[in-house]
Amino acid sequence: MAAPRMSLFELSIVVEVFGLERPELDVDHWYAVEVFAPHDAEVAALGGMRLDVDAGVEAMASADTVIVPSWPVDLEPSERIRTAVRAAYDRGARIVSICSGAFVLAAAGLLDGRRSATHWRYADELARRHPSVEVDRDVLYVDDDRVMTSAGSAAGIDLSLHIIRKDHGAAVANAVAEVRAVASFVFSK
After folding, report:
1. What are φ and ψ of residue 68, in 5° steps?
2. pTM of structure
3. Phi (first) and psi of residue 30, to 5 degrees
């Protein structure tokens, strides 16, 4: 989900890890990524960038996995968003947050009574606003069945690789991680 004032880094993690075709991998299926926004429109992201998004919240109705990559902590998710996230979970979808995206999951009631992670900068605020959520400040990510949360942005990469490992096994997750590590090395000075 693309949100106003979001960091495009978190969204880019999702698109990079799950959206690239991986013909070199021995898997029977890969992920199809569709970016959606609370309202079908252009999303103003951090740094003055704009993202043109065609799909709206209704995209959650058929998704197997819904990922909220980040969310402005001072913006309460609308009832429409909370309802769509809960409905996706209720029909069996996996719900994932990266960094401050945990605020959307908490507002939807999906973190009640669960251990969860978010960026250290937001951990106290998440715990204050949602006292029924057990905020774990000492982990990179938490996997609680079909609800998964990561700490900061980079921890979202770790959580994404964890999801691939669960879906396709360690060898495939390691292959995806190695491709990213090689690419980072090749383009570094």
Report:
1. -105, 100
2. 0.90
3. -125, 180
